[in-house]
Amino acid sequence: MASHDDIIQRMTRSNPLPDVAMITDGQLAELTLQIEKSRCDGQTVAQPHELIPTRPPIRWLRPAVAFAAALLVAFAVISAVSVTTGGESDMANQSISTPAIVVTDAWNPLLATAMAGAAPQPAACPGGSGATTPGPPGQMRPMPRNDAHDGVFDRHLGRVVYVDAAHQTWTFDVCTNTWHQMGAVGDPLDTSLVYDVDSDVTIALGPGEFSVYDAAANAWTKPQLEVRGGPRPDSFSGVTYDPMSGLIITTSGSRVWAFDVDSGTLTHIGTAPAEFAGYVAHLDRLVFVGADTVLVDPRTGETTQTAQPPELGPFSAYDFFEADGTVFASASTADGAAPGICGFDPATLAWTRCFDAHSVDLGSFSSRVEDSINSRVILIQSDSLRHDMWAFDLKTEELTEIVPYAPVRFQTED
Amino acid sequence: MQDNRADQRFREIYLANQRQVLAYFLRRTDAVSARDGAAETFLVAWRRIDDVPKGDRVLPWLYGVSRRVLANQRRSRDRYQALGQKLTHIGPAENPSPEVVVMRRAEDREMLDAVALLRSDDQEVLRLAVWEELPHAEIGEIIGTSSHAIAQRIYRITRQLARDLQKPTTRRIRRAAPSEGGGS
Fold first, then answer.
1. A20: buried, middle or exposed (CB in 10 Å: 19+, 13-18, 0-12)?
2. Is A163 within 8 Å of chain B by CB?
3. To the nearest whole angstrom, how far is the Cα of B23 from the nearest Cα of chain A?
4. Distance of alpha carbon A384 from alpha carbon B75, whole angstroms
5. Helices and strands (DSSP H and E) totals, chain A
6. Partners of A181 in the beta sheet?
7. Omega into A109 within 30° of 0, i.e. cis?
8. What are A195's strand-pairing partners?
9. Half-sphere exposure for A413 (CA within 13 Å, toward CB)
10. Model-level pTM?
11. Are B9 and B45 in contact (CB under 8 A)?
């Protein structure tokens, strides 16, 4: 086996540009010209706030950092919930700041008055089918999109619904670990997906886009929206299903909206205190993340504010998973990095450990979709050069590759 | 007055680092994309001149921006190709990248193939260390970890590469035997 030095030497030899002096004056002149032209035009070719490394990205998978981060989050969440519920946790007394509670007068009580309908019977894998058996290695597969909510689990269908980078609708059968290209009518563009459990449809929200996928009809439709409480929003940020009201909660700018797919009604609920990150069922709180972490009671608008440890931000989305009373959580950062999957103890409301998968970079999977049939989280690769899929078993906490690695090639039915 | 000082500082940053930043992109993508990426990186620096650190920390900061710019470029290219071609595979860029040129040499091809199978962060750590010749502390600043951790990581990466170069298909943990048949 080659030695460390041998590998370094080989890597050095493979450098396409071993010396910066090989860059010509002409190349530099072209670069200078392009920059000067953009500066003169005032042209923005990037969103600087998205690109600037304001702080080094966290890597929760390193145990020491993970432990410290878990403690800080625990303190923040515990202090927030303790005040909200009137509890007197000793740990809450150790919180890093005193939370403030604000009740927003203008909060629409719709999420308290609406009631979710009966959820359809979830699908079950047929006897003998092994969900842990990897799917066919040569199967067709979608082009990864690298967005946090590009896939959702339709538990009635028993499949992950996924819209890929080519805006094609795919479903992933969690019993056979096989992708199916649906050839659906009216595929949506770049959207975030959410599964509306009691209405049994998948909803896609995006810039100028509001579509509903009926799996039985294999068609996306754009509903006629009745917008209440403000002008129709043209883009959305963050989306979740509220199991209590049966409505979809999303935000647009600083506005919180609730969508009733059955009536086609989009209702302005209140004001978002920060960027919408997700919903924690155990707390029945919406989570907003900005300079602080803000928990909002979706029923009353009661806001609990707590200082957020700066090492934890900024996350663009949180996902929570549960099996047998054990809760797991994951998060996506704005720059695509992610800490992977971490434990979350509902008894103490504390983050526990994050799972280090050694040879599998959990952070490179942009989509983490809960497969409630098999009590696992489906991890969909975000790197188009390494398309494979894994499943994190919520009971055994084991990782299994469920769609083998495929080289840089995606097949289509054409 | 303030604008003049900011402008002067930007020019100093640009003149001192233009070759390194352009080289960063030329080592990872084609010539046109490299120029776009380098320009974008410096435009970020210009717009956020107050956030650019001083002294020796400028170049690692620029590499950190470059890394994100490159990731955005790749995402955009993937989407463009997917839309335009209803692709059957991810094709190469119109202009062959320096990596593609180098891959014509069989000895390097094998090495670059093995590197491409590493975790994306590991690829970047290795390239920053070997191609950019950055000290471990500066790589740590870009990646978000300590100098010691980078040293350990590079050692782990080289051991992984050594194993992969012996058995290029060896990957993954707990891989069960795949089922028969093709896709749907």
1. middle
2. no
3. 6
4. 9
5. 5, 26
6. A170
7. no
8. A202
9. 10
10. 0.53
11. no
